[in-house]
Specification:
By secondary structure, the chain is α/β, with parallel strands linked by helices. The protein is 39% helix and 11% strand. The chain is elongated, with a radius of gyration of 34 Å.
Length: 442
């Protein structure tokens, strides 16, 4: 009797560790649709407590007369508490009366583990092909894809007679998954995406992810916009700020730096829209010369282009006392205003650094769509401001500007050089005293 008591005391002593264990070992609660992630998390938690044998069935219940039965019952009950506390309330009644934890685990695996496999496979694949980065970071986007891939692999069973065919299949499968990851990235990663796809060999998915994430970190360090959208070189702070005079250390003249001195760099000289060679470049007033390298169609007539050129030239050739933002000067943006002092919302500033047309006046929009609230504009001073909406508006009551952003806190209207050249299929060339608009077609 003493020996039996001694054995029982030792077993209970080892099992007394369960008195201090938590009620839950995972924060994920089982529903009808998340069995894969739930079972993986629960298995990790139970294994960390040294009770994996209860899941695998390697520790069956001893007979009640066995001196170790009390210890086993104590440990099994603790594991049952973990599983009951980790399932939703509508699932709990289905397992509450099961005699052992292994019975609970087996029932749930049969009910939800591979239930409606074909339907679930279809749902997973559909969600994978429709998934894009959106507002997610690269790490979060990759994690979302990887989670879906793991769930897909769980539901898809394959039996291969040839091992080499199996290896080739998975090599192709992971190549396709690499393409899905690259294809779902935002447009700001086009450069690194092109580098990877144009290489002699496509690296593995882990290396591809590492390279893309490094590019994301580089862009953050360089203060580039990672919000897959607008940026502006205008500073938020307003002021009377006179345009800082640029001084050339070579010719000792004002108005340009040594990097743009025509004495040292004659190839940078532009005379009334003509290149250094003296050959006349395509202009808005010459419709007899065509550009053979462009098959695009001009969006405006020559007369309209000439009128628009005059308007933009007027904006960008204001008197010296006209104010510009300090941020635009630092970024070498081509910014000008028609107002002395602080520009008003009635004026437009030609900005070569802005990615979109922007305005703080919602009344200017002819078509308008509210923003989700997640899109922000990166300013030259490092700050960012939210975008309220976007749409199309009219310039001079004639020219439609598309995809313009409504940014309530921006102090000026910005006319994006990159946007207008894309929309009108033209070039804008600025010189010291005028602006030239070149049609790429006529």
């Amino acid at each position: 009797a003493m020996g039996t008591q001694k054995d029982a005391v030792l077993d209970v002593g080892s099992a007394s560790k369960t008195e201090n264990v938590p009620i839950q070992v995972t924060s994920i609660r089982l529903t009808k649709d998340n069995y894969l992630s739930w079972s993986a998390a629960l298995e990790i938690g139970i294994t960390s407590r040294g009770c994996l044998s209860y899941i695998t069935g390697d520790k069956p219940a001893p007979i009640k007369s066995d001196p170790h039965w009390a210890t086993w019952a104590l440990e099994d009950s603790q594991v049952k508490v973990w599983i009951i506390s980790s399932v939703s309330s509508d699932i709990q009644p289905l397992i509450l009366r099961k005699p052992t934890y292994f019975d609970m685990w087996t029932v749930l695996a049969k009910m939800y583990g591979r239930k409606k496999r074909h339907l679930r496979t279809y749902q997973i694949k559909r969600s994978i092909y429709s998934l894009t980065q959106g507002d997610l970071s690269v790490a979060a986007f990759y994690a979302a894809l990887k989670t879906k891939w793991e769930e897909l692999d769980y539901h898809v069973t394959d039996e291969w007679k040839c091992g080499s065919d199996h290896s080739l299949y998975w090599e192709k499968e992971w190549m396709d998954r690499t393409f899905l990851f690259l294809g779902g990235l935002r447009d700001e990663f086009e450069s690194i995406r092109s580098q990877i796809l144009n290489g002699d060999e496509i690296p593995g998915i882990e290396e591809v992810y590492a390279r893309v994430e490094s590019e994301e970190q580089r862009r953050q360090v360089m203060h580039l916009d990672t919000g897959h959208g607008p940026s502006a070189f205008v500073s938020r702070a307003s002021g009377t700020g006179q345009r800082p005079a640029r001084h050339c250390t070579h010719c000792n003249k004002l108005g340009h730096s040594v990097d743009f001195c025509w004495d040292l760099h004659p190839e940078k000289r532009l005379v009334r829209g003509r290149p250094p060679s003296g050959k006349r470049s395509p202009s808005v007033s010459d419709s007899s010369q065509s550009n053979s390298s462009s098959g695009a169609k001009s969006k405006l007539s020559p007369a309209q282009l000439k009128e628009l050129q005059a308007y933009i030239s007027r904006l960008s050739t204001t008197p010296e006392e006209s104010s510009t933002s300090e941020g635009a000067q630092l970024a070498q943006a081509l910014v000008a205003s028609t107002d002395q002092g602080n520009p008003s919302l009635g004026d437009w500033i030609v900005d070569s650094g802005a990615t979109h047309h922007m305005t703080g006046d919602s009344k200017l929009f002819q078509e308008y769509q509210l923003s989700s609230g997640k899109q922000r504009v990166s300013m030259a001073d490092g700050s960012s401001i939210s975008v309220a909406g976007k749409g199309s508006l009219s310039l001079l009551n004639k020219y439609r500007l598309h995809n313009a952003l409504h940014v309530p806190n921006i102090p000026v209207n910005l006319l994006s050089v990159s946007s207008i050249t894309k929309e009108l299929n033209c070039n804008l060339i600025f010189s010291a005293d005028h602006c030239s608009l070149q049609d790429l077609v006529t």
